[in-house]
TrEMBL record:
Gene Ontology biological process terms in this record: 'de novo' CTP biosynthetic process; UDP biosynthetic process
Alphabetized Gene3D superfamilies for the sequence: Acetylglutamate kinase-like
Coiled-coil residue windows: none
Naturally occurring in which organism (per UniProt): Muricoccus pecuniae
GO MF annotations in UniProt: ATP binding; UMP kinase activity
Pfam families tied to this protein: AA_kinase
Residues bound to UMP: 54, 74, 135-142
Function per UniProt: Catalyzes the reversible phosphorylation of UMP to UDP.
UniProt-annotated binding residues for ATP: 12-15, 55, 59, 162-163, 168, 171
Subcellular location per the Swiss-Prot or TrEMBL entry: Cytoplasm
Protein name in the entry: Uridylate kinase
Subunit-structure text: Homohexamer.
Name of the gene encoding the protein in the UniProt record: pyrH
Length: 237
């Protein structure tokens, strides 16, 4: 077996990616399909960590738009990410993968608190670590949490699973002439304001020379394919 090009990665999955065809919450079939893909990446010998968003349940900005205090609403958004993390933990365990959830907001009865060295040890032992509750701070996103944890854990790449197979010049679902980029620089992403990741996440990745790989999480086995250098994706570096 040739050695994989990646030793340790972090996959960011948005909450919306877990809804399936629904418009809210979790779709079991979709969660299981992503878990199977993650399981197959671990079988390649790659250490995998995950950050899952919460947009399928609650987003702080929506709460704020409806008149809530933003910091309070963001607290609810972070709790939503814990619900998703527990659902993914369950699906991964069913797929035969050992998992630990670590939350940025301690919740001892449900999961471990985030402890970097402990997470490191879990990953060395082949456990998938799911980082829940974002950064633990309001006014941030789970994209930023993903870039932060990937940098802290010394990951070789930050994978962003989206609804399309890479970064396009325009929304390919609306504009048939949209062009997919094979590679982009961090500055291209920032300057063109391409709506793939927020600027804080891109800046953090740039400062830490962490490549971002954007691919379609809904394509069966896409994460595994990308890890083998196959399939379609955009690399930002
Ligand atoms: N959130 C937060 N701090 C963080 C990460 C997330 O306050 O570090 C809150 C915020 O309200 C956000 C919600 O959690 O709207 C869900 O995260 P996000 O919108 O990033 O989820 P996604 O769009 O990836 O599903």
């Amino acid at each position: 077996m040739t050695s994989p090009r990646y030793k340790r990665v972090l996959l960011k999955v948005s909450g919306e990616a877990l809804m399936g065809n629904g418009s809210y919450g979790l779709d079991g079939t979709t969660v299981n399909a992503i878990a199977e893909d993650v399981a197959s990446v671990t079988r390649l010998g790659i250490q995998v960590s995950l950050v899952i968003g919460g947009g399928n349940i609650f987003r702080g900005v929506s709460g704020a738009a409806a008149g809530m205090d933003r910091a309070q609403a963001d607290g609810m958004g972070m709790l939503a990410t814990v619900i998703n993390a527990l659902a993914m933990q369950n699906a991964l365990e069913k797929a035969g993968v050992p998992v630990r959830v670590q939350s940025a907001i301690p919740m001892a009865a449900l999961c471990e608190p985030f402890i970097r060295r402990r997470a490191e040890r879990h990953m060395e032992k082949g456990r998938v670590v799911i980082f829940a509750a974002g950064t633990g701070n309001p006014f941030f996103t789970t994209d930023t949490a993903a870039a932060l944890r990937a940098a802290e854990m010394g990951c070789d790449a930050l994978l962003k699973g989206t609804q399309v197979d890479g970064v396009y010049s325009a929304d390919p679902r609306r504009d048939p002439s949209a062009k997919r980029y094979e590679t982009l620089t961090y500055l291209d992403m920032l300057a063109r304001d391409l709506a793939v990741m927020d600027a804080a996440a891109i800046s953090l990745a740039r400062e830490n020379k962490l490549p971002i790989i954007v691919f379609n999480i809904h394509e069966p086995g896409a994460f595994t394919a990308v890890m083998k250098g196959e399939g379609k994706f955009t690399t930002v570096h």
